[in-house]
């Protein structure tokens, strides 16, 4: 009985080292496989372990400036005519925009004719609509304005030159079309009231038929 017992337990003792080393080898293989898979990279990349940088975003087209972006000084000039008296009109303005809807600045109307000359400087306050509803009207900007100043009128009647200066109140409205970030085309009408008649004139109508404004 003693001999048979020793013969049955000897093979079990011989298997234990083999099972131990087999289990250890399997653990190393299974434990190192994720690390090897993580370090595996593209054959075209020299540094497999280094993270790849994110691709640079595609450049966007520069959007057109909106009315809120043209704050500060701008200059407007245009050509037209006046009625009663009828003259050729030159108009100059230098408004300063405090907000997208509000601007303040000087305006000078100059009317020239063979027999008449008009010089009408005013300081105007302008209120404009910064954004009309609908994408089709994003570049169209109507506005209204009012101001006070002086009117100088010079007339040639026969061989006599007569002139006079009087108080002036101006009101009007216009519309601009934005053609680029800093350029606007437009047209506007001015209603010039002289509370006390100056050279027999109490009202002068002005129409700046075409004009351009540059934003600084």
Integer-rounded radius of gyration: 43 Å
Low-confidence spans: pLDDT under 50, at least 5 residues? 1-8
Portion in beta strands: over 45%
The assembly state of the depicted protein chains is single chain
Question: Could you estimate the helical fraction of the residues in percent?
Answer: 10-25%
Largest beta sheet, briefly? 9 strands, antiparallel
Q: Helical segment tally?
A: 1
Mean pLDDT: 81
What is the SS-derived class?
A: alpha+beta
Shape: rod-shaped
DSSP E strands, number: 9
Please write the string of helix (H) and strand (E) elements.
Answer: HEEEEEEEEE
**Gap between N and C termini, in Å?**
113 Å
Which features characterize this protein?
rod-shaped; 1 helix; alpha+beta; 216 residues; disordered N terminus; single chain
Write the layout of secondary structure elements.
Elements: H1 2-39, E1 72-83, E2 87-93, E3 96-97, E4 102-112, E5 116-128, E6 140-157, E7 160-178, E8 183-198, E9 201-215
Antiparallel strand pairs: 1-2, 1-3, 1-9, 2-4, 3-4, 4-5, 5-6, 6-7, 7-8, 8-9
Detailed description of the structure:
With 216 residues, this protein is an alpha+beta fold. It contains one helix and nine strands; from the N terminus they run H-E-E-E-E-E-E-E-E-E. The protein has one helix at residues 2-39, and strands at 72-83, 87-93, 96-97, 102-112, 116-128, 140-157, 160-178, 183-198, 201-215. Strands 1, 2, 3, 4, 5, 6, 7, 8 and 9 form a nine-stranded antiparallel beta sheet that branches. The protein starts with a helix and ends with a strand. 21% of the residues are buried. Residues 1-8 have low confidence and may be disordered.
